[in-house]
Every structure is written in C-alpha cells, then in structure tokens.
Amino acid sequence: MTPLLEVSGVSHSYHTMEGETKALSHITFSIDKGEFVAIVGPSGCGKTTLLTLLDGLAVPETGSILLNGRPVTEAHGRIGYMFQRDHLLEWRTILENVSLGLEIQKRLTPQARQELSRMLDAYGLGEFSSSRPSELSGGMRQRAALIRTLALKPDLLLLDEPFSALDYQTRLTVCDDISSIIRQSGRTAVLVTHDLSEAISAADRILVLSPRPGTVRAEITLDFSGENSPIRRRNMPQFSAYFNLVWKELKTQ
Ligand code: ADP
Ligand code: MG
Predict the structure, then answer these.
(1) How confident is the model at residue 253 (pLDDT cuts 50, 70, 90)?
(2) pTM
(3) For the chain, what is the largest distance between any 2 Cα atoms, rounded to a whole number of angstroms?
(4) Closest Cα to atom 10 of ligand 1
C-alpha cells in the first residue's frame, strides 16, 4: 500500500536580518491512511514549521512531501489544520463558525448544513448552535474548532498543540473527546505536542524530534491492545513503560 503521506529528506531554514536559523534537518517518515501519529519534541525544535510544510503553506528548502503520491502544494482543500488557538469568530454563532470553511469553499449546501447540525449534536454542542463562542467553555470551543475542520472532510488532519491553551483537567477530557472524534471519523491525523503523556495516550505511533534543528530521533509504535481511549490508556501498565522510553529519547543530548 502506498502511504498517504511521504516525507523524504526534508530540511528547512529561516532567513532573517540576524542570519539563518536551521529549523529542520533531514526529516523522513511516512503515514498510512487512518493512522494517528503524534510528533513530540522540545519547544523550538521545528514542530510548527514541519506542520506548515505538511500543509503546503511553505515549501521545504530540500526534500519532498507527497500526499497520495502528489506534491502537497497541489493538495488544496485535502488537508485540515487545527491551531493552538481555536480562532472562532465572536460575531458568528457556533453553527456559523463551523460552517465557515465550507462557506469559503462554496460547498455549504442544505445537506452540508444538516450534516453540520448532526455533528454538533453528536459532539455535545447541539444546544449551543446559536450561541456565541464566548458563551462556551474552552473545551467546547476546541470541539467546535475540530468540527469546523472535519466538516471539510480532509484526507489529512494536522493538529498543532490543540490542547495547550486549556487547564490540565479540561485538557485530559478534551484530549479524550477529540481523539475519539478523530478515530470515529476514520481520519488520518498528525498531532504535534510537547506533552509526551498526551502523545502516548492518543496516538498509534510517535515520532520523537531532537532539539533544533529537528531531526527524527526515534519512531515508536504504541501497542495498547486495541485500547484507544486516552484516559483508559493512562491507567494501563504499558503507559509508564512508553513514558520512560520516550522520555529517554527526548533527554538524550
Ligand atoms: P516549535 O513549534 O517546535 O516550538 P517552530 O517550528 O515554531 O518550533 O520554530 C523552530 C525554530 O524556527 C525556532 O528557533 C524559531 O524561532 C524559528 N522560527 C520559526 N518561525 C520563524 C520565522 N517565521 N522566522 C524566523 N525564524 C522562525
Ligand atoms: Mg509550535
């Protein structure tokens, strides 16, 4: 099977008045359809840069990124990007917010609108479809942001530290919610985080990046005997073993 995403020998630098910052070096990995991959690494190691390249928003200095065998820069609309902040618009209701992507792409048909209402119901936001973002909790806002992204039915979903603005307790619940929504929808996802427990609790596989310039230091496939709930995984004996393994990779200089 050809992988959905193929990243080969990607390096990238930023050039500013102060000089050159090498952000990523020789990154190679691939992701199969339906996989949930987490990328962990210290702050500043190039995680957001990597997602920007995967999204085709920037072109790598060297190397190639293919989605379904074609350059990712030609994959318009096939990739969904969820940011650290939810970017919900206060002057729009929740239903109008989740409709935004489809509206921009001129795909907001009556059926699409109905499907959005169904998704809001399914993900516990049905009663809030006419509310404004400020009336929702942080976790509910992140769920709305996810629905807005999933509505576009992307082949690949990119999540950049989506829980980092939430307090610890909310973060655990929202991570559970959001990973189960992603798994139910059968989407392929890349979750970037600096929180290794989050990565271990949610993903099928983890890529550990080194400090800047980011290189792939280790690739760890997680086996939780089919258990996909992040909260339940945290109580399984494998969890601490994986934690130690990833921690050791992160710590190595
Ligand atoms: P992470 O998301 O892992 O924290 P980033 O990808 O945001 O890391 O940044 C990697 C490195 O590249 C950092 O040293 C950062 O300062 C630098 N960097 C990021 N964006 C830019 C930019 N637009 N211009 C110059 N340097 C940048
Ligand atoms: Mg970042």
Answers:
(1) low
(2) 0.92
(3) 55
(4) 46
